[in-house]
Specification:
Layout lengths: L11 E4 L8 H16 L4 H9 L9 H9 L5 H17 L7 H10 L3 E5 L4 H10 L9 E2 L1 H4 L6 H10 L7 E5 L2 H10 L3 E5 L16 E3 L4 H5 L5
Parallel strand pairs: 1-2, 1-4, 2-3, 4-5, 5-6
């Protein structure tokens, strides 16, 4: 956590969602394990690597299709069942990080306006926020299918700030990705808080410096002078 704290509670905060509010990496691993158990072939880590390739996208079910085809076990019914299991287990495995529920409640009690900015599609984002019980804290959710762009493009941050009826420079951005949240946030003049605890990739970017580094989500309580 940074040595300095803000002088006042911020008015506007944008939050990333996956791996910032909850451990999405764990949920993905669990869902991949469930698929290979159903298929009776391969390992969860092997399927997970298919989602990391960038061929179809991190949430595209075609990654499952490719996995099944490459193992010569593709059948339409198996594929459909595998996709259903993947989605079911993924949502069931979502658990908020420690301190998230309490901190969001304190922010809401302090009158802070909050919104989500995520690269997940709207249907996926709404489902995850509902499953973790935090949807009501956010005035809106900005996604690529609503903004027309993905992070780190500045337009998605401007669109998210518009939900809160503020200039993007007035808002904080809290996220686990230096390249997709912290760097664009810095360039846009936002106050940036790097959710280091959720950065499972862990690639160092020495030239990207956040205003604050969070070892846990609850660090925001002290940084933002929230009354506990």
């Amino acid at each position: 956590m940074a040595d300095t704290v803000t002088e006042t509670i911020p008015e506007y905060v944008l939050f990333d969602m996956d791996n910032t509010l909850y451990d999405f990496y764990f949920a993905k691993k669990q869902s991949c394990e469930a698929v290979v158990d159903l298929a009776g072939s391969g390992e969860g880590t092997e399927l997970f690597r298919y989602f990391l390739r960038g061929t179809h996208g991190f949430e595209d079910h075609n990654n499952i299709r490719d996995f099944l085809e490459d193992r010569s076990i593709f059948e339409t019914r198996l594929y459909e069942d595998a996709c259903a299991v993947y989605e079911e287990v993924k949502v069931q495995s979502l658990t908020l990080y420690p301190g998230v529920a309490d901190t969001l409640r304190l922010l809401a009690d302090a009158g802070v306006s909050m919104a989500i900015v995520t690269d997940a599609q709207s249907s996926q984002a709404e489902k995850r926020l509902a499953a973790t019980g935090v949807r009501n804290y956010f005035e809106g959710v900005m996604t690529p299918d609503r903004s027309g762009v993905r992070k780190p493009k500045p337009d998605i941050f401007h669109a998210a700030a518009a939900i809160l009826k503020c200039n993007v420079r007035e808002a904080w951005i809290v996220g686990d990705s230096p390249k997709r949240e912290i760097e664009p946030g810095n360039l846009l003049g936002m106050t940036t808080a790097y959710a280091k605890y959720g950065d499972w990739i862990g690639i160092p970017y020495p030239k990207i410096t956040p205003d604050y580094t969070l070892e846990s989500f609850g660090d925001l309580q002290d940084i933002m002078h929230l009354e506990k």
